[in-house]
Please model this.
Amino acid sequence: MTLCEVKVEVGNSPYMVRIGKESLSWIGVQLRDLDIPLTRRVIVVADANVVDHHSEKVMLSLDQAGFEPILWKVPSGEGSKSIGQLEPILSFMAKHRIDRSGAVIALGGGVTGDLAGFVAAIYLRGIALIQAPTTLLAMVDSSVGGKTGVNLREGKNLVGSFHQPSLVVVDLITLQTLPPRELAAGMAEVIKHGCIADRKLFDKVAAGQTEDLAPIIQRNVEIKAEVVKIDPFETNGRRATLNFGHTLGHAIENAAGYGSLLHGEAVAIGMRAAAHLSKKKCGLSGEEVGAIEAAIKVNNLPLTASGISRETIRAAMKLDKKAKSGVNRWVLLPKIGQTVLREDIKSEDVEELLDLVLT
Ligand code: NAD
Ligand code: GLY
Model:
C-alpha cells in the first residue's frame, strides 16, 4: 500500500519516491511499470543483515513480475563502502550477463545504497538503479539525490559519481527490524533538514513527535528534492546546505574509525558544534542553540564524543572533499530554517568547538 509519494525532478529524468507499507512485496510490478524498458536479468545488492528479513519478498516479487533476479550479499557496515567491494560485484554481474538494460536494486541502508549506486553508475558506463532503503537515514536522505560512491582510507566518499535512481521504494515495514540506535541515527538527518529548511519539522522532531513516520519521511524527501532540483551537482551552494553538521561530523566519524560512531551520531555532534559556531558568527540565538541541543538529546543522539585525537580530526578536516585549497566550508544558521555558507572560520574557532564536543 502506498501511503504517500514525492516526485523528484532532476534533469530530464524525474523519479518517484513511494513511501508505503509492504511495498517491497510488489517492487517487481513497480519496476515493470517504469518508463524505461528493462531486460529480465537484474541484480539485488543487499545488506547482509537485511537479507534474512527482507530479501525473499523482493526476489519473489521480481520473479513474479517476469524478472530473473540474482542476489549479491554485502557485508554490513561502513567498511563495505570500499574499492575492494566493487570488483566482485561487477564481475558477478558480468558473469551473469547483466546488460545495458539491466538494473541494480539496492536493498539496505546508506552503505548499500552508496555502494550499489556506484556499481550501477560504472557498470557498462551506467545502468538503471532502484533504491530500496531499509534504514531511516537512507529513507530520508541517502536514497534520494543521486550521490553514490565509496570511501578511501584517507577520507569518506572520496570516490563516486552522481547517478540518480529511476525509482525509490520505501517500505516502512523494514524499520521494524532496524536496531533502535540506527533509527536514532536516522533522526539526526531529520533534525538536519528541519534546521536548514523547516522550523515546523524541527519543532515536531524536537518534541519527540515521531511515531507517525510516513509524513516525516515525506517532508524530508520533499526538502531534499527541492534542494537537488536547484543544485543537482552541488555547484551553486544550495546542495552544500545539506552538509549542516557534516564539516566536523565527517571528520569526527573518520577520526573515530569507520563504524565506531554511526554516521548520524557523528552528524549530531557536528550539528551541535555548528549551532554554537552559528551563535558566534551569524546571530543564532542562545535559545535556538539550546533547542538544537535538546532535539539531539530527545532523539537519543550524542552531544559529545570521547577518546578521539584532535590531531586526527584536524587531519580529517583537511581531507574533506568539500574543502578548497585546505579551506573548509561551514554551513551555519542565522536562525533555525535558514542557512549561510562560511569559509572564514579560523582554526581558533575550530579548537573552541573541539573543546566543546570532545570529552
Ligand atoms: P548502514 O547502511 O550501515 O545501515 C546501518 C546498519 O543497519 C547496518 O548494520 C545494516 O546492516 C543495518 N540494517 C539496515 N537496514 C536494516 C533493517 N531494516 N533491519 C535490520 N538491520 C538493518 O548505515 P546508514 O545509516 O543507513 O547509512 C550511512 C551511510 O550513508 C554512510 O556511509 C553515509 O556516508 C551515507 N550517506 C549517503 C548520503 C547520500 O546522499 N548518498 C547521504 C547521507 C548518508
Ligand atoms: N547528503 C548530502 C547530499 O545528498 O548532498
